[in-house]
Amino acid sequence: MYIKNLFKSLKVLVNQGQNVRAIGHSFSISDANNPFYLIAHTTSFNGLNHILNHKFKLLTQREKLSKKNFKHLLRSRTYDQNLYVNMSNPTVNYFAHSFIDRCADKRKDSTWINDKLKEDGSVFVLFHIDKPFVYVNDSEKMFSLCKFNYSQIKPFLDAKCNYVFLGLEYLKSSNGLEIISPYSCSQSYDRSSSKAWFVIETSGFDADLEKVSSIFPDQGKFFEGNFLRLMAIQDLHESSIIAQARSILCWIDRNKFCASCGTKSRLDDAGSKLTCTNSDCKSNNKALNKHVPSNIHYPRVDPVAIMLIINKAQTHVLLGRKRQFPKNMFSCLAGYIEAGESIEEAVRRESFEESGVYTDRVIYHSSQPWPFPSTLMIGCFAYATSEELNIDQDEIQEARWFSLEELEMILENRHPESVTIPSERTIAHQLIKHFSKHRPKL
């Protein structure tokens, strides 16, 4: 009865247009007007008590979600650790709306991979090194990822072009609740009936991009220009395919030869690793070289800490601008995490190196794949213990403290100096927006 009441309340939210997602037996509720923020999400008994103690309320179409439902939930030993609500955790950022089960256990199964390649339902996307094949909607200045079937791309496979198995399509919904990840849901799905997604790199067919593009003259073209314009991909799920495929293909393009002996590397496991083909390479003889690292390469990801620095009073935030930024654009400070360094230490070091500001407390916010070429942006809030600026001119051109009032004006495009911040699809924008709206909860 208790769980039935909770589901009834969630159904009201769905009917109202709220975004409600199920992760296993847990639920996340996000703002219908801004899908980049969760209204609710936590995993613990204490988290539910925290919500009750702070009189957390959700407005619905016909009624408010009452505390009574959550009190019923707290009494349920079966569900008190699985059904949950949280106040401040953000939802998925752009480039991270994956709908793919990567099926790592199937990558070594060449028979299974070959069968999936030839299935009528399999989906193929094309890249020319790092340029995706897209349809351009000139009127809206937006892009869509062009998708192909096996018969259309067979010439590329016959030409021995590199391909990468991305995974199986995993999108399920029940009673309006979308299950967003196969890795956090115990409910199984039928792999045999799910679409397989592959990316094919076409330069092995012909190095001339225009010649390859002319094979499909009415369907689109290979993307050219500023790669940041890939953030104009309309479909959020397609953006995650772009992020996954482009990062892997850039890694393959930059690691064609063994780092130990210079021999050409071989692409194995459906595109998920590179192996030295020289049997005499010292990195392949582990029996004789126990202390020599194996030269099997896996896709590289470069972690970057990006932080919004907040002053002690939580009334101002520090933003900076690089020389290559558009006029009047400011953003969060950021920098690569170095070897042997934690996220927190990288945040403090980069904050000091770029601005001269000391910070102590660091709070994780969210992350964003950044396929330019293979970065993972790790978003944090950092609390400053000083405010005097000493800018590193080699890193940033200018840094300023902005008040909450200024942030509101910037977000509403009415700042008197026409100051702007990166687009809503960037994690920098989401950090700034989250602080502006939820400062008391941080």
Give keywords.
20 strands; alpha+beta; 10 helices; 7-stranded mixed beta sheet; globular
Q: Number of DSSP helices?
A: 10
SSE order, as H and E?
HEEEHHEHEEEHEEEEHEHEEEEEHEEEHH
Rg, rounded, reads 24 Å
Instruction: Report mean pLDDT, rounded to a whole number.
Output: 81
Q: Could you give a short account of the major beta sheet?
A: 7 strands, mixed
> How many strand units?
20
Q: Distance between termini? A: 35 Å
Describe this structure in words.
- By secondary structure, the protein is of the alpha+beta class.
- It is built from ten helices and 20 strands.
- The chain has helices at 2-16, 45-53, 67-75, 110-118, 150-158, 209-213, 236-254, 343-355, 404-411, 427-438; strands at 19-23, 26-30, 38-40, 100-101, 123-128, 131-137, 142-145, 163-169, 172-174, 177-179, 196-201, 221-222, 265-268, 273-276, 302-310, 316-321, 333-336, 359-370, 375-384, 398-403.
- Strands 4, 5, 6, 7, 8, 11 and 12 form a seven-stranded mixed β-sheet that branches. Strands 15, 16, 17, 18, 19 and 20 form a six-stranded mixed β-sheet that branches. A five-stranded mixed β-sheet has the order 3-2-1-10-9, with helices on one face.
- Strand 13 and strand 14 form a beta hairpin.
What is this structure's SSE topology?
Elements: H1 2-16, E1 19-23, E2 26-30, E3 38-40, H2 45-53, H3 67-75, E4 100-101, H4 110-118, E5 123-128, E6 131-137, E7 142-145, H5 150-158, E8 163-169, E9 172-174, E10 177-179, E11 196-201, H6 209-213, E12 221-222, H7 236-254, E13 265-268, E14 273-276, E15 302-310, E16 316-321, E17 333-336, H8 343-355, E18 359-370, E19 375-384, E20 398-403, H9 404-411, H10 427-438
Parallel strand pairs: 1-10, 5-11, 15-19
Antiparallel strand pairs: 1-2, 2-3, 4-8, 5-6, 6-7, 6-12, 8-11, 9-10, 13-14, 15-16, 15-17, 16-20, 18-19
